[in-house]
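Typical record was shown:
=====
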Amino acid sequence: MQFSDALQSDITETVRFALAEDIGSGDITAQLIPANQTATASIITREAAVICGVNWVNEVFQQIDNSVTITWHIADGDHVAANSILFELNGPARSLLTGERTALNFLQLLSGTATLCKQYSDLVSHTKVRLLDTRKTIPGLRTAQKYAVSCGGCHNHRIGLYDAFLIKENHIAACGGIGAAIAAARDIAPLKPVEVEVESLTELEIALNSDADIIMLDNFSLDDMREGVAITSGRAKLEASGNVSTQTLAAIAETGVDFISIGALTKHARAIDLSMRFI
């Protein structure tokens, strides 16, 4: 996902909600500190990571107190070693403390997502496959996590239910078959990509004859994937899905499929350990 005005608008709204959730009627603990006291703080990562979330942190302090200055030592997508200083804050001590948790929550989650994606992408760097995320994201943070996926070297599948068709088993059953479902999709939105899930080589042939743009090979064996690639011969893009892990990923990529979709990129991301300390 490219950074855009639409993404910035999403950041603004997401940060506003997160701050309201955390601050509520006011940060009563920060009121222990004199209002005119200033401070400088550094934010450190306790572990190696691919960093993502700069604009979310900036937005947190912009909304809390725009007199806070932020000095960044990294950019989104940078790989940093453990104990690296990511950025420094200077401004009213109350504001730094009030914004700390929300800012780090965004940064630790998005950096965790980017770091995991980098680990997966490195495993298939010897192939041409593109690793795709899914819609298995934290509610309210989809665009944020999908941006983090791109910072980690992976790629975005559809953003939501509106920008591409993904015809799965239940859609096929309700429509009366693969061909009927694809035809209906072409009638509804002729310019939208049409992807269909298949569960056998027989269904793959039907999807190819029905002119699907992308065909998802759901839980295929490696042998069937290889045969599917040969049968397809470039007539459609092929996406592997199901039973994907760090142990199976390289072998799946080596079958020659175009894409591999992995829900774990976003739903299994572990937050990076970050810390803020007054200097």
